[in-house]
Amino acid sequence: GEEVAQTPKHLVRGEGQKAKLYCAPIKGHSYVFWYQQVLKNEFKFLISFQNENVFDETGMPKERFSAKCLPNSPCSLEIQATKLEDSAVYFCASSHTTGTANLAKNIQYFGAGTRLSVL
Amino acid sequence: DAKTTQPTSMDCAEGRAANLPCNHSTISGNEYVYWYRQIHSQGPQYIIHGLKNNETNEMASLIITEDRKSSTLILPHATLRDTAVYYCIVSGSSGTYKYIFGTGTRLKVLA
User: Fold this and answer.
1) Which of B97, B103, B105, B106 has the highest number of chain A CBs within 10 A, making it the mutation to test binding with A?
2) Looking at the complex, does the CB of residue A2 fall below 8 Å from at least one CB of chain B?
3) How do strand A10-13 and strand A114-118 relate by DSSP bridges?
4) How far apart are CA A64 and CA A80, in angstroms?
5) Diameter of chain B measured on Cα atoms
6) What tens digit of pLDDT does each residue of B77-109 get?
């Protein structure tokens, strides 16, 4: 598609329940990124993929969070045993890279986000 | 830590130019400057990017200083719909393409 599609728009979970978020990147884009926005301004990078492979997972919490990008399926971000502090808007972005290894341009296009509320 | 610093907020009269500054004094030679905006809680919207030269597109102009340590986003004729939080991001270092967002500038366009 021509835009990053995230589902669902809203997700409500009780503490301890599982949450699964989905992201369909723009067709032809090989990179997918997940960000968490808590409160109004603060974005936190979680993880990125290059096709099906984890590219950078330095922002991913060690416990409870996992993500996948499988062929012919939307990418997913799963939170096991949600906590109140997981309440946030989760944004997915996709991109393709142009340029060279030493000078790479990577414009990311963001989806509309999934608002997760943990009660 | 964010690699950029921006004023927390700015006001601009409708129809006037909005000039949003960004400091990125630690930018490295292989990093681009990207500008995005977020209207309400929508996903960040790409505006423009640049490396060394000034750039212009249908949305905005980007002025990058010669030493690349700062830049200014210019919205030439601001409208009420330009009210948003504007983020300046530098990215491109080898090994990762992740964006590190700062707190951005909350631009309010006044009627």
Assistant:
1) B97
2) no
3) parallel
4) 5
5) 45
6) 999 999 999 999 998 866 788 999 988 999 999
